[in-house]
Amino acid sequence: MKFSLTQNTKQLFGITFYQIKAEKSFGNVSKGELGGWIEKKENLSEDGNAWVSGNALVSGNALVSGNALVSGDARVSGNALVSGDALVSGNALVYGNARVYGELQLTSGFFFGYKIKKEELKYFSLGDNSDYELIGKGDCKVEKQNQKTELLRKAQELIDKAQELKNEANKL
After folding, report:
1. Domains of the chain by residue range
2. How do 3-12 and 15-22 pair as beta strands?
3. Calpha distance 101→67 (Å, rounded)
4. What is the pTM of this model?
5. Mean of the per-residue pLDDT values for the chain?
């Protein structure tokens, strides 16, 4: 066994994270060394020299494997994979279906997915007053609600509520 979950825990985002402890020496890690924080054993591979250190957090179905290192205040979650000789450190956030592998070094920013080089990304505005855009790929559509659509939705809610009240009155 390469590592174990200690009884040291922290609660963040409704998730219990366990601090890890090296059960044997490997790579740059010494037996008995305390590491970073993972939600479950499946977040860190028993194979290779992969390690989580510092205040780094790994959760969900994310996996750190190979000789990868997640350190500092980095966060890896969702279905993300950090593998090979990759380094995720600093305040970097890797989540969703992101894949970080090879000799990549991510030290800051948000990494949430990947795309095939020939794949076209689509950008959707969130409105005139927003500094943000949605990013999509493949067959995706974003439809803005116009005033008519919003009024029809509210009217349907009122009709549904009126029907509920009518049903209650009929029970009396």
Report:
1. 3-111
2. antiparallel
3. 10
4. 0.67
5. 85
